[in-house]
Design goal:
The chain is an alpha/beta fold and 607 residues long. The protein is built from 19 helices and 22 strands. The strands form six sheets. The protein has an eight-stranded parallel β-sheet. Strands 1, 16, 17, 18, 20 and 22 form a six-stranded antiparallel β-sheet that branches.
Length: 607
Amino acid sequence: MIRYALPLLALGLATTARAETAETRAAFRDRLPSEEIVYFVLPDRFENGDRTNDRGGFAGDRLAHGFDPAHKGFFHGGDLAGLTRRLDYLERLGVTAIWFAPIFQNKPVQGDPGAESAGYHGYWVTDFTRPDSHFGTRAEFKAFVDAAHARGMKVYMDIITNHTADVIRYAEGEETGYAYRSRGDYPYSRKGGIDGEPINPGFQGDEDRSQANFARLTDPAYAYTPVVPADEADVKVPAWLNDPIYYHNRGDTTFSGESSRFGDFVGLDDLFTEHPRVVEGMIDIYAAWIRDFGIDGFRVDTARHVNPEFWQAFVPAMLETAREAGIPNFHIFGEVYRDSADNGYIAQYTRRDGFPAVLDFAFAQAMRETVGQGKGTHVLNALFDGDVLYEGGEEAARAMPTFLGNHDMGRFATLVKADRPGIGQEELLARVKLAHAMLLTLRGSPLIYYGDEQGFVGDGNDQAAREDMFPSQTASYNDNDLIGTAATTAEDNFDETHPLFELVADLSALRRAHPALSRGRQVVRHYGQEAGIFAVSRFDPDSGTEYLAAFNTAAQARRANVVVGYDARGFEALAGQCPGGVAAPGSATVTLPAFGWAVCRVSEIAE
């Protein structure tokens, strides 16, 4: 006997999105992290809502205020008012949470003469207690958060505990090139090396993190002699951040070995995160943002460059602050940058350091290798097999923020072009569309990098991947050949008819309408050693109904017999072309065009 599963809602995807009620929006706090569709944006590059703050209130030339919209490394004018103005656009895209680059007050410009750039990205903080004056005020930030919440959107802040702006200099720095000086060669007990005069008597090193021990650390000149320029002596807020004793002062990191945690990140002042005063101070700073504005989560910058004990204190304190503020499901995810499809490395930060989630760099690399480079789909199977390594296992993996590209590594389209020199625009668009279809239906909390929905194709990583959504004056952006459109970045790019915008909007609505795609258990059903069909089943967390999602990473049509539940008999197509029924109990024949996909709901089951 064949039994028909419960029918789908008789509504199109667009109608489903519109049908979400005010009551549903009011319950946004109850959504789990895996249910969010996150939009990551650099406020400076999104929309200029207030031109009076373009120079941030600073006098002088661009090296004083940092505003130069023709230069890719300076402020361009985007702000909180612009973000607020475009919330309707994001709502129509299907976004349920907004993560933006740090908005804290930055040092406007830093860098050696001739190599200066501005703090438009937000990672050169001087004042942790207010938004950068280029972006707006605390009142404008509150208005933005309230407006987002009124639409049922969560707000994730990008935070930094590892470093501040580059203020501290070293007396010996110019002659040494600020080279890293290790704890073995330059112990805390001697000034300037093991042969130097004794200092800090009684200090037992950074492994004893008690207040009593750190009270004995009074002289920061163990490796270098820190020097604070007189005109910047009080530039940091809160005031305790101006004391060099709260920094490692060991020179620049090489991103390896001991220096990875104790060195200055590209010259930025590296905080002494083992110091109990630093732990206490950072907890106070970020707890205040939760209490004052009711934000919904933190993305934590440079998480792997901070000692685990800091996170073991900081993360529970933030979760408890959020709980006391009536914010359930507060999401904290760390940035652990690693170009590897093996998720074992990033998983350690959920087990040892205590992060509830980490940015899924393993997912991003696996997508590059399969959809971009054409490697076998076994890469994806290995990725998802590794989900058991996270603290909390496969269930916790569903909360890992998944993404394709970002502001550091570059856009997915850019990476594909680098891996496939000479690729045509049509094929590039097809691969990017497939990648977004996988992003929005596979396990994890999907992140859309701003501009990807408008077909942006950058020239590279970092500054080359941070184009303007509003009309740009940057020549190196405006000569880019975008995909899916004849537009350039020299014009406004908020086109809701762009094929990638429409794709993301449709699949976002599909994901929201079917909890199996956000909260459901995932089982890999088909993969191979070559490019071709990759398939998973996802299961409704309440009814157990099976959904089959299949993707073809090959440049030619592919057909495969895919494992399904033995009780499945028929399918209803939610996206793409689905089989009408099973080929035999336990198997369904899936046929997909080049770079095609299908999402199918089991609609008939055997009794």
